[in-house]
TrEMBL record:
Family to which this protein belongs: Belongs to the binding-protein-dependent transport system permease family.
Protein name (database record): ABC transporter permease
Topological type in the membrane: Multi-pass membrane protein
Organism annotation: Streptomyces cynarae
Keywords for this protein: Cell membrane, Membrane, Transmembrane, Transmembrane helix, Transport
Transmembrane segments: 53-74, 130-156, 168-189, 201-222, 248-269, 309-329
Amino acid sequence: MTTQHQSVQAVGDTTLPAGEPSQDSLPGGTAVEGRSPARTAWRRIRRDKMTMIALLITLLFIVVALLAPTLTALTGWGPITPDSKAINPDTGNQPYGSLGGISLKHLLGVEPGTGYDIFARIVYGLRTSLFVGFASAVLSTVVGVVAGLAAGYFGGWIDSALSRVMDVMLAFPQLLFIIALTPVIQNALQTNSHGGTDENLRLLVLVLNIAVFAWAYTARLVRGQVLSLREREFVDAARIMSAGRRHILFRQLLPNLWAPILISFALAVPQNISTEAALSYLGVGVIPPAPDWGALLSDASEFFLQDPMYLFIPGVLLLILVLALNLLGDGVRDALDPRANRS
């Protein structure tokens, strides 16, 4: 009896004859199909109910922020349009009715003292929080990736210098220095006709200050990954083929770093939103009457005993937004690196 030797190739968890296409059928008729890392990560995210809920909540907040002009046009109240008929001058301009003046006319009530519609101020303040959170996260991620790539790949004095800078930035008490620097920079750059700083400039300074103190976290993470990847065979092969440093950095190394970069970005956004809210609460962020959740909480703290809903509504919404973003970041991390979270 003669046996016929047949070479085989591995496809998933099964072996199929060599020469067959990469997509075939198992004996039971099940199709075998390869998945990209992105599709695999998305599949894990879809299976995680908590992450999907966090994703839907985050998308809802983003949609509300984008549709802020439309939503406030439907209600008829802008973020700085007072309603003098909704506050009672006999009680120190407290809102009429219970629960802070919540009614069909004012869905979330009105601000004590001013009569501003809280719903309008919240949806416009949400735009501010999301813009600062995402813009500062993008900027800090870009700077951190470039610095981490350079430190990890070139090594030597470049690595030493950048690593010392990272150590210094990580050692700074971030919030205290931002509080100290933000008003100084804002006052030095530009003032408007009223003697204050232009609101767009204030937001730009906030984004820059937060990003300056946040990039080192991403840089340290990317540097550690590059130190491991630069000794891999595909990098050696690129060097042998006379590939330039730019090609190796951005065509060979960077595509293999998208998972830690995405994780770092996803976790930076909620932290930056919390920082922005804290700065506005302390009076060095967005200044009233410009709408911002941190400024709302700061003003509401003065009226807590008379109108607790004024503090409760923006406080709970800020908690939900930051919690959803944190859970989404954790879910993305677990989907991209499932070995890191489960024992």
